[in-house]
C-alpha cells in the first residue's frame, strides 16, 4: 500500500511537471521543467523495475537532452508569446483528451495473461553468453535494430554538421575557447573526468551481466569529453580530421564486419559462431562505445562554428 | 503462436545486401579522399540496383517471397526480412530512380569535400538504405528505426542550401515527421502489449476485431499520414520539396514520401481484419480525394515551377489513398484486385514522372536563370530536350495514354465502376482535368515561339538532360504493360492465405 | 477481458496515457518550435512509459519485466535524443539567420 502511495505521488508529480512545462510562460522555464520531468521519469522507471531504462533515461533522455536544450535556451531568443484561439484550444484539447482516454482504456483492459517474450529471451540467453537479458535482446535477437540505430546516430551527427555554414565545414564545433579559464571548473574537471571515464567503462563492462551497457556508458564518456572541453582541458577536434572520422566509423565497421563474417562462420548475418558469442559481442560493444561516445559528444557540441 | 515457422530462403542473402551495401557506402564516403566521394556513391547505387534487380528476378521466377532471418533468430524474438512481390517491385523501382538522379547530381554541389556534396551523397545513400529496409522489414519496431533513418536523411537535404526559407521548411518538415514517428511508436507499444509480437506475419495470424488493434492502427495511420503529407497534413510538403536542390527534390517527392505510405499500406492490408478496415478506408479515401482536388487547385495557382510541381505531388499522393477503399472494398482477394495493381502503378508512375519533372525544373532554372512560369515563352527553343522531358512526364501526370499514369487511373476507374462507386470516378476524372490545367500552364508558353531569340544562361550538360529524359520515358513505358492485375504484385502477400 | 488490477503498472500506464495527451496538445498547439520540441519529448516520455508498463506486465522467467520492450525503449530514447539534437540545431541556425523570428512562426 505504501508502495502504491509512493508510485501515485511520482505519477502525479510527473503529470504536474509535464503540464507546467506545456504552460510555462517563457522558454527557459519550460526547459527547466523538462529537465525536472526527465528526473521524475527516471524514478518512475526504477519503480517499474526497469533499471537499464532508468539509467538510459537519466544519461540520455534527461542528461544529454537537457544539455542541448540548455544550449538552445541560452542561444535562441524567446519567441513572442502568442496564444492560440480559444476554439483551437478546445478542439485540440478534446482530440488530445480522446487519445489519452483511448490509451487509458487500452491500459485498463489488458489481455489476460499479458503476452511476453520473457520466456523466449531466457531460453536462448545462455547461448549468447550474456547474463543481462536486455543485452541479449540488443546484441543478439534484435542486433539489426542496434546496428541500424548506430547508423541513425551517425546520420544525426552528419545532419547536425550539415547545418553549419559552408565556410566552417570541416572546422571545430563551438565558439573559440577563452584563453585561461579561471575559477573552479578546470580543477573540478581534472578530478571528475578520470572518475567519470572509469565509471563509463565500468557501466559498459557490467552491461553484459547487470544493468548498464554501451549507450549509457557512451553517454557518460561523452559527458566527460564535453566537461573536459568546457574546462579547456582538451580542444574540440576539427570535424574533418581523419582520425576522428575513423573513430566515428570504427563501431559501425566492426559491427557490420562481424555481422557479415557471421554468414560463412555462423550461418547468418549478425549470428555469432558458437563458443565465440560473448567475446565477439564484447568486441562490438567496446568499438561501439568508443564511436557512440564520440558521436554523442559531437552531437552535443553542435555544428562546426570555426574555420578549419 | 506463429502460424508458420519462417526459414531463410535461397537468395535470402540478397536482402542482407540490400541493407548493408548502402550503409557500407555511407561509411566509405567519409573515409575515402574527397574526390572519390562521388565515385563511391555511384558505385554503391549501382550495386544497390544490381541487388534490387536480382531480388525482383528471384521473386518473379520463383513466384514466392524471399525471406532472411537475421542472426538465424525466428520471429517474434528475432527480426526477419522478407521480399514479397510488391516489395521487390518497389525496391527495384526506387533503385532505378536513384541512378539517374545520381548521374544528374554529379558535380552539382561544388568542389569535392565541401559541405553540400558530402551531405547530399551521404543522405542519398541513407535514403536508399532506409527505403530498402522499409520495403523488406517485417518487424514494426525495425520499421520505426527505418522511418527515423529516412527522416534524418531527408531533412538535411531540404536545408542543403542553408537559406533562411529552406531552414524554416526543414524545421517544419522535421516537426511533422517527428510527431508522425512518435504516434507510430505509440501504436507499436499498444500492439506489443496486446499480442507480444511485432512481426507482421505473426500478427496477421493473431489479428482479431480487438479495440487495442484499432486504436493502434488509428494512431499509426495518423502518424504515417503526416509523414506522407496526406491532406490536411500536407502543409509542410510544398515549401520543403520546392526549397531543396532539384536532385534532392526529385528523391524526396518521388521516393521518400512513399516510404511511410508503404507502411500504412501494410498496416491496413496485412494487419487490420478486412471487415474492420472497410469502414475506415472510406475516410482515408475521402482525405485522398480532398488531396487530389486541393493539391491540383493549388498547383494551378502557383507562379513558380518548383512550387507547382510540389503541389502536384500533394495531389498525386491523394490518388494513392484511393487504393484503401477500392482495394479493401473489393472482397476476398485484395491483392489480385484491379485496385491493388492500380495503386502500385500510380506509385511507380508518379515516382518516375515526378523525379523527371523536378530534374527538368532544375534544368529550366539553369537554362533561363529563373523558374517563373509566366516567362517560359520560347523555352522549347532554348532547352528542347528538357521541354520534351516535361511533356512526357506531364502526359503521365495528367493520365493521358500511353503512360503509367494513364494505366493507373484507368485501372482505378475500372475498380470504381466495378463497385458502382461513382463518387471515386468523379474524383479521378476531376483530378485528371485539373492536372491537365496545371501542366498546360507550363507547356503552352514553353512551346510558344519566343518574341526575340534568347540564349541559354549556362551551357547544357547532355548527360544530365538525358538522365531526366530517361525517367520521363520510364513513366511512359510502364504504360505499355498489360492493363490488368499483375500476378507478381500478389506474390507472397501475407493475407492471401488467411481468412 | 477483465479490468486490470490496480497496481504500479496500471498506475503508470494511466500516467503514460495522460502524458501522451498533454504532449500531443503541446505539439499541435504551441507556437514556438522550441516549445513544440519540448512537447514532443514529453509525448515521447509517455510513449516510452507505456512500453515500460507492457514490459512490467510481461514480467516472468525470473525477470522483473519483459526484456524486449525494455530494449526497444533504450533504442527509442537514443533515437529521440538524436531527433531533438537535430531539431535544436535547426532552431539555433534559424535564430542566427533571422534574429527577429528566432524560434517562432511555425504552424
TrEMBL record, chain A:
Residues 187-301 form the Na+/H+ antiporter MnhB subunit-related protein domain. Its main location: membrane. The chain crosses the membrane at residues 28-46, 87-109, 146-164, 185-205, 217-235, 247-273, 279-301. The keyword Cell membrane applies. It is found in: Cell membrane. Residues 13-74 form the MrpA C-terminal/MbhD domain. It holds the Pfam family MbhD. InterPro entries: CPA3_antiporter_subunitB, MnhB, MrpA_C/MbhD. Keywords: Cell membrane, Membrane, Transmembrane, Transmembrane helix. It is a multi-pass membrane protein. It comes from the Bacteria. The keyword Transmembrane applies. Belongs to the CPA3 antiporters (TC 2.A.63) subunit B family. This is Multisubunit Na+/H+ antiporter MnhB subunit.
UniProtKB/TrEMBL annotation, chain B:
InterPro entries: CPA3_Na-H_Antiporter_A, ND/Mrp_TM. The chain crosses the membrane at residues 12-32, 39-56, 85-105, 117-135, 141-158, 170-192, 212-237, 249-269, 281-300, 307-327, 347-368, 380-401, 421-444, 465-484. Keywords: Membrane, Transmembrane, Transmembrane helix. Signal peptide: none annotated. The keyword Nucleotide-binding does not apply. The keyword Transmembrane helix applies. It is found in: Endomembrane system; Membrane. It is a multi-pass membrane protein. Its main location: membrane. Residues 138-429 form the NADH:quinone oxidoreductase/Mrp antiporter transmembrane domain. This is Formate hydrogenlyase subunit 3/multisubunit Na+/H+ antiporter MnhD subunit.
UniProtKB/TrEMBL annotation, chain C:
It is a multi-pass membrane protein. Signal peptide: none annotated. Keywords: Cell membrane, Membrane, Transmembrane, Transmembrane helix. Its main location: membrane. The chain crosses the membrane at residues 12-30, 37-59, 71-91. It is found in: Cell membrane. It holds the Pfam family Oxidored_q2. InterPro entries: CPA3_antiporter_subunitC, NUOK/Mnh_C1-like. This is Multicomponent Na+:H+ antiporter subunit C. It comes from Kaistia geumhonensis.
